[in-house]
Amino acid sequence: MFDIGVERLMGGGTGVPTSGPQETSFAGQGEPSGNGDGAGKRQRQTHDGGVKPPLHGIGKTDGEKHGSEAPHSQGRGTFYLETFGCQMNEHDSEKVAGVLLARGYRQVETVEAADVVLYNTCSIREKAAQKVFSRLGEWRPGLESSRLTVAGSTFQRSESQDPGSPSEPGAPGALHRGKGEKLIGVLGCVAQQEGEKIFARAPWVSLVCGSASYRKLPEMIAELERGNRRVTGLDTDTDETFETEITRRDNPWRAYLTIIEGCDKACSYCVVPFTRGPERSRTSASILEEVRQLADGGYTEVQLLGQTVNSYADPSARKMRFSELLVAVAEVPGIRRVRFTTSHPRDFGKDIVEAIEAVPAICEHVHLPVQSGSTRVLKAMARTYTREEYLEKVALMHNAKRPISITTDLIVGFPGETEMEFEETLSLLDHVQYDGAFCFKYSPRPNTPSLKMADVIPEEEKSRRLAVLMEKQREIQRARNLRLVGETVEVMVEGKSKKEHPSIGGANGSAVRVSQWSGHTSSNKVMNFTSRREESLGDYVRVKVVSATPNSLVGEVAVEAEARRKD
Ligand code: 5AD
Ligand code: SF4
């Protein structure tokens, strides 16, 4: 899919699997390990545990959400923004925040403090979409627990109004917000998919906007402020990509950067082509310019994003290939790590592997969703490759000069999937030896061709297959991670644990405090490690692996690195 891969809802935060046979990740991807205290997301910490002032590169705003304001902020109002779903959504939210901050809005961390409450939603599986509606349900006027305490009593609506139709300012039957009431907006994939139907289901919502219209958000909010009750932005036929002058980036060292929006692949189970529209790539020049600005602003890691990132097609005369772009980004002075997600197997070729082999700054990790190990099921999914073709791409990575960590997405219980076909998926895991897999039960989605397919697999059977699949993958990951014990790897320091180990013996029997840190390796594995000194968030350190679990590595700062520092 999505090939976009990594979704927060899947437990991508720490790579720790959820307990039930649910949509779950065994991949150590996503945000920094939960082991950290979160400081890594907001502030730059100094050696002495103090906090450096925020970096002020272009494309970045103040590191704190509370009180972050654009220079010309005139106290327009406050907004709260909650994000569901994948990294694309996370990054879209950074851009939405940037657009609003630039117009003088201020971001706050609680709904209570907000004038405008925005939900950036995900509809990839039914569960994700339901979650959004249950969040919206919290605002239902009249509910004792309603968050919309004022609005509940002051909303007025004429009986004759079609609940689905947007109303004109002051039109009879328009819903009027009372003083102090909040404006609630639904953004993202659910917005695009459900459109104005959201107004019928949750009439207290006044803004529905898909990702292709985010640029217009300030105007849309202004319209609402002028008294218009409902506004929608649902075009997907724009040929613009969503570039903004200011992006409010949440992580001070890792910058996400969308290089291609939308998806043309039309997998038979997937809503993304409907919710995000056709593929649109940014010019290589504008991408590289932004990377240079990011590097100037102190970012050392860049993660290139796209539903099918390797289908990137440079719209400029330069016609830079995706693999060339990877190299060009890695060559920008100051950039130490380049990641990219998610790759589609059809467009994954030798040139990408060669780029990884040749350029150490290109991370040794490829997220290559396979979805199923059965050629028949892949055909029914319209994935455009066979099991054998997929394995050929994997062989390119297995034979690479640098070890490349491979992760994937898998769907069990696609309509008509037989037990034997499911077993083909299990045997594929043996062949590939993935370092992580996001495993899902097939979820029927509106507008998708697979919705009408026969031989629906019962829910309990899907759950059983999911549990079997996850258990197998867990064991593969355990074995793969254990094999790394004894090796020394580079880790970006992303979080510090609050707990400190009690003092242990130093060189001459002296007491030494050992603190606990976390970060990611180039192969995107979560590393929890100890250090005898105060590390700096955002730094790169050499860490020796001392033990491992299926979802993370455990290590200690390598002794030779310690020694070098003392010199
Ligand atoms: N049901 C289950 N999983 C899905 N995905 C996409 N659509 C569906 C669906 N209808 C999964 C794919 C994709 C990942 C992000 O979500 O595995 O790669
Ligand atoms: Fe990925 Fe296929 Fe969905 Fe496109 S249609 S986002 S390739 S799963």
What does the model show?
The protein has 567 residues and is of the alpha/beta class. Helices cover 28% and strands 21% of the residues. It is built from 16 helices and 22 strands. It has helices spanning 39-42, 87-102, 126-137, 149-154, 188-194, 197-201, 217-225, 272-275, 284-296, 322-330, 350-358, 375-380, 387-398, 419-432, 459-482, 559-566, and strands spanning 24-25, 44-45, 51-52, 77-83, 105-107, 116-121, 183-187, 205-209, 231-233, 254-258, 260-261, 280-281, 301-305, 337-341, 365-367, 405-412, 436-441, 488-505, 511-521, 526-531, 540-548, 552-557. The strands form 6 sheets. The chain has a 6-stranded parallel sheet with strand order 5-4-6-7-8-9, sandwiched between helices. A 5-stranded mixed β-barrel has the order 18-19-20-22-21. The chain has a 4-stranded mixed sheet with strand order 1-17-16-15, with helices on one face. Helix 10 runs parallel beside helix 11 and helix 14 packs parallel to helix 15 (459-482). It is globular, with a radius of gyration of 24 Å. Residues 1-74 and 149-179 have low confidence and may be disordered. The structure holds 5'-deoxyadenosine and iron/sulfur cluster. Residues 1-5, 124-125, 269-270, 369, 371, 409, 411, 440, 442-443, 445 line the site of 5'-deoxyadenosine. The site of iron/sulfur cluster has 14 residues, from helix 8.
